[in-house]
């Protein structure tokens, strides 16, 4: 992608018109929750996350267009960001195994939506060797996942399109941090219901916008994942939507689904955003990073290492309390298709 060319054509074309009502409940009483930036890749732009007073839904407003999403997602999971994402994904193995055990059983066909490189399917098949794993993702990386043998079948088509040709085909559909990144979670869940056999299971994991750390850490809260996350649904809203979409909630994990990294990740996010770039990334329109900038970044990261370690220790201690309550940064739901 020619980043410079994309920006010179105008940043406004990356956005839909600003919404004047809540996309979830239609309420007109909406206001700014927080203004966030791309703190991961530090691509240019500022993004408003609005909140509905009536239902608590948090949403990107104005929302990115498909072209805008392509711009900000490019080189995040693939291309220049492939190796970094793959190294981070290696730390998710224990969480993937917990997700599989939460579903239970021995399903014949499992569809993972928003599969990225296919790491979830790779871990899941270790516990379910007789299950056939399908994966959907717009990135070409999922095709490499199929070549590696991590998934049995892979496709780069949208779920709504895929559902039209694969009705009642699957026993389980997993959506792990997928619904937040879609313009219409309702439409996506309707497609999930369509591809599931009656009695089939949807495993849903999403960010919890009611986490106290979302307020404490502000724009540096790791789970904003701006600008990819477009819709953040409070737990009560998700339960209502599932019922409306033909599902019955069977299991819920709220505190137990918490990822114990809020404080450490916020500090790391702030450092990454404010320090000189690690490399002359093409979207920064820079041909080089100076020696001074490299020294400053490495020096600051070394000095911050003890603080990062302390923050992680605090996160792990807080998780002992959070796991018993409802205030985690994530929640999981297992729902059965009626």
TrEMBL record:
It comes from the Bacteria. Keywords: Membrane, Methyltransferase, Transferase, Transmembrane, Transmembrane helix. GO terms for molecular function: methyltransferase activity. The keyword Transferase applies. Pfam families: Methyltransf_23. The chain crosses the membrane at residues 300-321. GO terms for biological process: methylation. The keyword Membrane applies. SUPFAM superfamilies: S-adenosyl-L-methionine-dependent methyltransferases. Gene3D superfamilies: Vaccinia Virus protein VP39. Signal peptide: none annotated. This is Methyltransferase domain-containing protein.
